[in-house]
Amino acid sequence: MAGQRLLLMPGARLVLQRANGEILLQLRADFRKWGLVGGNPEPGESLDATIRREAKEELGIVLEELEPFGFSSNPGLETIEYPNGDRCQYFGMLFVCRSFIGQPNIADEESLDIGWFKVDRLPQPLMRTVEPTLMALRAWKETDRFQMLQ
């Protein structure tokens, strides 16, 4: 629907993490690359409500404790051209969750597969936002400072 006009979009991205440090990635149907669960708010929805809804819709789980750890608005990282030619620049709040209810599964048509992975053994190919998001999460843990992806 966007055509060639660049759309500026708010969004949220989730690092879902097990106690052993593994993270959940989804193999996206649109790009056929592994990425983190995320999405855009619906009218009247906050970003934390957005990521909770996306986790329910895409993975069939309910998030419990949810923490924001960073924000990404770098046009070089966050501008994406979709296979249909639509272009969007995202402004995304980054969240981490280590506590959830349910067993993650493919709950909609946006994912071809999901899996838990060690951070040092990620599948390929990856969406370009995955590694910078994980680096920001590590920096947040080490410094206790909110991260701005540059």
**Secondary-structure arrangement, i.e. CATH architecture:** Alpha-Beta Complex
- SS class: alpha+beta
Largest beta-sheet characterization: 6 strands, mixed
CATH superfamily: Nucleoside Triphosphate Pyrophosphohydrolase
Query: Tell me, what is the CATH class?
Result: Alpha Beta
Question: Could you give the count of β-strands?
Answer: 11
What is the CA-atom radius of gyration, in angstroms? 15 Å
Distance between the termini: 29 Å
CATH fold naming: Nucleoside Triphosphate Pyrophosphohydrolase
Task: List unreliable stretches of 5+ residues.
Answer: none
pLDDT averaged residue by residue: 95
User: Helix amount, in percent?
Assistant: 10-25%
Q: Sum up the overall morphology in one term.
A: globular
Question: Count of helices?
Answer: 3
Q: How much strand? A: 35-45%
Secondary-structure element string? EEEEHEEHEEEEHE
Number of domains: 1
Explain this structure to me?
This protein has 150 residues and is α+β, with helices and mostly antiparallel strands. It has a single domain (6-149), classed as Nucleoside Triphosphate Pyrophosphohydrolase. The chain has three helices and eleven strands; from the N terminus they run ββββαββαββββαβ. The chain has helices at 47-59, 75-78, 130-143, and strands spanning 6-16, 23-28, 34-35, 37-39, 62-63, 66-72, 79-81, 87-97, 100-101, 111-117, 147-149. Strand 2 and strand 3 (34-35) form a beta hairpin. The mean pLDDT is 95.
